[in-house]
From TrEMBL:
Stated family: Belongs to the class I-like SAM-binding methyltransferase superfamily. C5-methyltransferase family.
Record PANTHER family: CYTOSINE-SPECIFIC METHYLTRANSFERASE (PTHR10629), DNA (CYTOSINE-5)-METHYLTRANSFERASE 1 (PTHR10629:SF52)
Protein's recorded name: DNA (cytosine-5-)-methyltransferase
Keyword Transport in record: no
EC number assigned by the record: 2.1.1.37
PROSITE patterns linked: C5_MTASE_2, SAM_MT_C5
Phylogenetic placement of the source organism: Bacteria, Bacillati, Actinomycetota, Actinomycetes, Micromonosporales
GO molecular function: DNA (cytosine-5-)-methyltransferase activity; DNA binding
The keyword Methyltransferase appears for this protein: yes
Transmembrane segments: none
Keywords of this entry: Methyltransferase, Restriction system, S-adenosyl-L-methionine, Transferase
Residues forming the catalytic site: C84
Amino acid sequence: MPARAVRISAVDLFCGVGGLSHGLQDAGIHVAAGVDLDRTCDYPYRRNVRAPFHRRDVRDLTVEELSAMWPAGAVRVLAGCAPCQPFSSYRRGVDTSNEAQWPLVDEVRRLVEGTMPEIVTMENVPRIGGTRIFRDFVEQLREYGYHVDFGSCYCPAYGVPQHRRRLVLVASLLGDIAVPKGPVAPGEYTTVRQAIGSLPPIGHGETHSADPLHKSRTLTPLNLERIKRSSPGGSWDEWPEELRAPCHRKASGATFRNVYARMTWDEPSPTITTLSYSFGAGRFGHPEQDRAMTLREAAILQSFPEDYEFVPPGEPAQFAPLGRLIGNAVPPLLAKAVGAAIVEHVAAVKGVVRKVARATALPV
């Protein structure tokens, strides 16, 4: 008698705008719900993931509430991608020992202990792997009976057109499980040109009429002159002295070349941050247009689909909140690879996995 197909169902803690959830769905995993405290995540999560969104502080989420989100009989996945700012490489040298967000990792542990889902996954910045809080989390998972694997994943190897490394953890009560290897070879990485080269050109300070997210920040006259003097892949050291920032005129500023700079067409983009719309915050200048990258370009370079909706119709796209949501998101293509590894793992143990398509109707 053939084995009955099982369904895999995930709850996404700290779900943001749905990057992880969207990728898991693309792998055939049912997403039961997303949880996040940020109200601006409600519309994009429901609209694109088409799963219930719970605006909750994870610290207040009870074991009983979480358990009720999963459908009966499913192989349960708990994704707990706690906010990564305390561990970011952009904060090297900052004392993070008393960060308020550190306990959020322990909140994930609390909910794992209380619900014991078959699968646990986490994505974060690589630096978290060297912290005591992460080592303790891994040890506690093993004490609960989980098989655990984690490692640094280079996003271009998973199809993401962006130089970005992320730590991925997978854990299973069902048996040995492994972080997936990136299937894309170095010579085949998706480039900036392949990702955003077909988008319609716009000027600085403009918004494309057909897409509210394809908008660029207005440049000051000084920054407009600076970007006009910048070549793709170049830096501020191409400028005449009078255009350089005061810090770059000193010998101590010579090492900071990846600011006020253009991307290059034929390789992946730099890491997309929460300030990727700002010319002065990194190598975020368009390769040939005299402007910084748009919010839509940042989202595509994170591997979101080009039609992913972040704001309701008629509502303006605001740089700071959307830049934060896009920059903090899990790249969907990386999430898809993790989801595919989970599906393969469950199938090896349980037999047949019933893959689930993304819902077509919006959740109530």
